[in-house]
């Protein structure tokens, strides 16, 4: 056991004061009658509005402890589970960061949770530490006593909020464009939301949290716009509520917070201008994968989803980046930022260290260089004018639309092509397919494929990883499983790159490996690299003496998806239509692949604003899929849901209602209660019902 990575505590007396375990679920958040509330408050009640969830898994209630109140004293949102499988499903589908607390010492469970991307930290309440074997850098301790666990949990949570909480969006990401447009809307809207709206919404959400309600009362009585930044950084409230609004882009939450962000931006604009460029620093701990992405975007713009606090003290930033007790799998990073005199920043007191230098929300920076070393140095320069220009150019290109309508269209799904949101379009052989197996496969490879077909992904990986010698085919199989089934793009990338190198050295065909690489780069938001790989693979397939039309169509779709993610809609449409033409020419026709291609084309048209054509194509794809008995029901549900979102944007409320109704019916059969997709469909079904009723009343 790697004890350096799994610290233990020596306290032996477990307090039994809290004997009744309270289970929290979505019904608590839905307890209030929404009849007299508006749409904004309804949606805020139904969703978590903070960026971190504490999950307490106590199988069969064996600890006998009620930790809910104690955990909520640290973080508002707590979920309790007694059933392991239900808990794992909740984590898999979570959009928030998870702090996982458990009384289980099952090594296989800990390993499974540790590998889930949304899990940030693990804390174990147990006397027996010897049963947990392995190197688990996300584990922050095995505690025999819950008081020590809670103390450490709070310390780690405080560190996390300093060095890990922000996320980055890059120049070609749609979310970057959205953030710059939202900033323009924030500054230009004449009528903002009111403090009363914010107070009412937050009181509704935190109605069963006495501590936060006391802070809300204080805010309601004492808030002044001259103290806006003091409040924006006041933890736990409202700083966590504001951060989640910016991170999740929840429109109703942003609406409630609008007056605070507006006051903050105006406060920044009124602040005294600096006479010269200043240097500030930020220490963080980031994954190697994210550092690769930052390096790939050298020379381009980036912004964060919040105020991005920095410090004038290089020493303080280095200390924060070098915290040895926080996640040894993350790498220390020092941001060095040149602040142009024209970009406002304000000094704010900080309880953890020296005063912070704070930039306004969604401030743009240009990445000058990324120097990977024991301490990675990322040099950036403020570039607010460049971000503003992107927003203004987009507004100029869409003069027939309001700024609010542009923001709404950018936030409609799909934001970018994501793994699993569309039917599988690749025609190359995959380790998890049911297609005819290669006759040259070894017995171990066939055994691994059978495990995948039964859903035993970790077992399949273990089989592949022990096969010797390691060939490009094995590496590609492992890479595909990691990318498609585990969303571990960093390891998938390593496998495909190693396979490519081996094939190039041996003079073997590399087109399929390039396609795999293109898909992984795309899912890692490295669109330039994805486009390069798909373009190279397409050229190789087209120049072959016996061109593979299916592979050519697959690469055309990969190229289309990359252009789509970069908002290059004409190029995306051209390549997807070329792929569709090829797939429609097959004899006999592969109707599922045709339907899938039409569905992607519909989503691209939806994304670029041609809603009428998108609706027609979606209906065509849906009709084709419904004619296939073997169609995955989740695909049908997703298509019905997407169709409903388009129909509601054209005020076709009755059609939208029927689409959401079908989506809910399917989700109810295949997804557990509380699953994000099911909750979203149920929520929008109610919303369109209310809108339809209101529309009929107005007529």
Give the termini separation: 70 Å
The Rg value, from CA coordinates, equals 26 Å
How many domains would you count in the coordinates? 4
Second rung of CATH, namely the architecture of the largest domain: Alpha Horseshoe
Query: How would you describe the shape?
Result: globular
Order of strands across the main sheet: 6-8-12-13-9-7
Tally of helical segments:
29
What is the CATH T-level topology of the largest domain?
Answer: Serine Threonine Protein Phosphatase 5, Tetratricopeptide repeat
CATH superfamily of the largest domain: Tetratricopeptide repeat domain
What is the count of β-strands? Answer: 13
Helix content: 40-55%
Q: Report the major sheet.
A: 6 strands, mixed
The CATH class name of the largest domain reads Mainly Alpha
Strand content: 5-15%
What is the averaged pLDDT score?
Answer: 82
Judged by helices, strands and strand pairing, the structural class is alpha/beta
Q: Give unreliable regions as ranges.
A: 1-46, 413-437
Report on this model:
The protein has 699 residues and is an alpha/beta fold. The protein has 4 domains: 26-163, 3-Layer(aba) Sandwich (Rossmann fold); 192-270, no CATH class; 275-411, Toxin ADP-ribosyltransferase, Chain A, domain 1 (Alpha-Beta Complex); 519-698, Serine Threonine Protein Phosphatase 5, Tetratricopeptide repeat, CATH 1.25.40.10. The chain has 29 helices and 13 strands. It has a 6-stranded mixed sheet. It has a 5-stranded parallel sheet with strand order 2-1-3-4-5, with helices on both faces. Strands 10-11 form a two-stranded antiparallel ribbon. Helix 8 packs across helix 12, helix 19 (472-484) packs parallel to helix 21 (511-523) and helix 21 (511-523) packs antiparallel against helix 22 (527-543).
